[in-house]
Design brief:
Elements: H1 8-12, H2 23-32, H3 39-56, H4 63-71, H5 73-80, H6 85-90, H7 96-110, H8 112-120, H9 132-138, H10 145-152, H11 158-161, E1 165-166, E2 177-178, H12 180-187, E3 199-202, H13 215-229, H14 231-237, E4 247-251, H15 258-269, E5 273-276, H16 278-281, H17 288-300, E6 306-309, H18 325-343, E7 348-352, E8 368-371, H19 377-387, H20 400-406, H21 411-428, H22 434-446, H23 466-470
Parallel strand pairs: 4-7, 4-8, 5-6, 6-7
Antiparallel strand pairs: 1-2, 3-5
Family: Belongs to the AAA ATPase family.
Protein name: ATP-binding protein
Domain AAA+ ATPase: 244-376
């Protein structure tokens, strides 16, 4: 009997073992080694490969082999049922064929013989993974079965949308690989996905209490979250147009809380925040920028993350007269980046210190534009209260109202100055006093690289140690 002549569902539901499974033995084995419970999956693929080899040579499949393919039916049904291994591992309702594809992909990770088997049966000699064509032949699917496989391996299908499989192209001979995160889950390991190319993970944790911003800006941050939280309802249930993103522009001077607000958004979503370094992506060589952007967004596809693009004004500046090919190419780069951002289904935040430099024509591409102004005296008082460590021993003379009125620092400068003052006090093994704070504020202003005067720190000037001022 030729296995290729059997209906696809019979073969794909067939299993292989050499003895009727014993539930108690299986439970004990699985407890001692969790991967052992997947043995029926690997054995089935091995025997299907043997049957395929026999079929290619025009040989009949021995009856005992066909019987072995049916013996473990109950074991695999248990693994693949609603209360089975795969459902508990993934939390997804997958079809029999979708689990078949997953098993084909992860098999070589745990059973090297399967990788060699794929290669011997015509797979990519450099890759120990099955391709779509080989899976179709393994499962003895009819020609129209390729349409089903194409659909199940599509970018928006469950296997790729949930980042279970890696596939460079949905063609018959591209190797189908498991995502590293899937392998880690099967092994029971924690897994942190690598940062997309050209990005750096921002690990600062922040909450709404850390933000000292105008009410209007805070309200718009919540509106930005609404775009993310309720996209399924507006698009899926209400029939709203799916436009990707959302995309927001955070505009304001340095140190006013743009990155901190991005961290709050990421923390609220419980997603990682990645800062995109446009310097690593933009290349002087024609075509390289687009390639780098494609790699970035390909790696970010279907991943729950927040992307933050700093210094957006460097790319989205007002367009001048096109004088040469380089000018035209620069405009093409910007258009390509905008297209990628708009087609990316995930929050993108662009920050700028110079909103006036951004071409107004780009504004319609953003769902929201948020202003981050310099803090006024009231906001500075709140910032000093938030930034001074809650258990730091403060001298009785420390009055945050007085400190806030003394010098108009931004939130980032206040954070640095508050911590610097604490380290000065800790080194002297004393309370944090106005002398420490005056020194820290002076050091912060000196970072600007200009000549400064004690008048710039107001009433704090009289607390500034003479040695600090004399050394300026």
């Amino acid at each position: 009997m030729n296995i290729a002549s059997q209906p696809q569902n019979e073969v794909s539901n067939s299993l292989v073992t050499h003895a009727e499974p014993n539930a108690q033995d299986q439970a004990e084995t699985a407890q001692s080694h969790p991967l052992a419970m997947l043995t029926p999956e690997w054995e089935r693929l091995q025997l299907l490969g043997y049957c395929l080899g026999q079929s290619r040579q025009g040989k009949e499949i021995p009856e005992e082999k066909l019987q072995q393919l049916t013996v473990l039916q109950q074991a695999v049904r248990a693994l693949r049922g609603k209360q089975g291994y795969w459902h508990k591992l993934l939390g997804l309702e997958l079809s029999e064929l979708e689990i078949d594809i997953l098993v084909f992909a992860v098999g070589p990770q745990f059973e090297p013989r399967l990788g060699w088997l794929y290669q011997s049966l015509g797979g990519d000699k450099s890759e120990p993974y099955a391709c779509r064509a080989l899976i179709q032949e393994f499962l003895a699917m009819e020609a129209h079965g390729s349409e089903t496989l194409i659909r199940l391996l599509g970018e928006s299908a469950a296997l790729r949308k949930n980042r279970l499989l890696l596939l460079e192209a949905n063609d018959p001979f591209s190797p189908i690989k498991p995502e590293p995160s899937l392998v880690a889950r099967i092994l029971g390991h924690d897994y942190e996905e690598s940062a997309p190319p050209g990005t750096t993970r921002v690990r600062a944790q922040a909450t709404w209490q850390d933000l000292v911003l105008p009410e209007q800006t805070l309200a718009m941050l919540h509106e930005f979250l609404a775009w993310i939280h309720h996209q399924d309802k507006v698009v899926g249930q209400w029939g709203g147009k799916c436009i990707g993103g959302p995309v927001a522009l955070f505009s304001g001077p340095s140190g006013t809380g743009k990155t901190l607000a991005s961290s709050v958004i990421a923390s609220e979503l419980n997603w990682p925040l990645y800062r995109v370094d446009l310097g690593q992506l933009v290349s002087k060589y024609i075509g390289e920028t687009e390639k780098n952007l494609n790699k970035l967004f390909s790696a970010a596809q279907n991943r729950k993350m927040v992307l933050q693009f700093d210094e957006a004004d460097s790319l989205f500046s007002k367009r001048g007269e096109v004088k040469d090919a380089r000018d035209r190419y620069a405009n093409m780069e910007v258009s390509h980046l905008l297209t990628k951002i708009e087609n990316h289904y995930g929050p993108c935040i662009l920050t700028t210190n110079l909103r006036k430099q951004i071409d107004p024509a780009f504004a319609r591409r953003f769902q929201l534009v948020l202003e981050f102004p310099r803090p006024d005296k009231s906001a500075r008082r709140q910032l000093w209260q938030v930034m001074l460590p809650p258990r730091a021993p403060l001298a009785a003379e420390v009055d945050v109202e007085l400190i806030a009125k003394s010098c108009a620092l931004s939130g980032g400068h206040i954070r640095n100055a508050a911590l610097h003052a604490c380290y000065l006090a800790a080194a002297e093994e004393t309370e944090v006093g106005l002398g420490h704070i005056a020194t820290a504020v002076w050091r912060e202003l000196a970072k600007e690289g200009r000549e400064i005067s004690p008048r710039e720190i107001g009433v704090l000037a009289k607390h500034l140690p003479e040695a600090v001022y004399a050394g300026a």
